[in-house]
Amino acid sequence: MTYYTAPSGGGVFATGTNVWVASLGGSCPSGASPCPSDVTQRVTENVLAASGVGPAGAAHPSQPNWTAFYPAGAATRTPGPGE
């Protein structure tokens, strides 16, 4: 999942998954267990509420936090099949 502020001031939210829509209705495809519908619904409500009052990026500018997940000097690798 990602969120960033566009140069126009708009907030851009992307889930990066096709299962997001399915989980909104609580009908996750087989193999997607547990179905995260409660969390997905709440996150969607929050994003839509923030976007509905104006440019979300202006009221809620993105905060760079990638270094918390990828600290300087940390080794990175591409996951293999099935990882």
How would you describe what is shown here?
With 83 residues, the protein is of the alpha+beta class. It has one domain. 36% of the residues lie in helices and 10% in strands. It is built from four helices and two strands. The protein has a two-stranded antiparallel ribbon with strand order 1-2. A hairpin with a 5-residue loop joins strand 1 and strand 2. The two termini are 18 Å apart. The model has no long low-confidence stretch (mean pLDDT 80).
Largest sheet: 2 strands, antiparallel
Strand content: 5-15%
Order of helices and strands: EEHHHH
Topology, number of strands:
2
**Overall helicity:** 25-40%
- Compute the CA-based radius of gyration: 16 Å
Strand order of the largest sheet: 1-2
Brief summary of the model shown:
By secondary structure, this protein is α+β, with helices and mostly antiparallel strands. It has helices at 19-24, 37-52, 56-59, 66-69; strands spanning 2-5, 11-14.
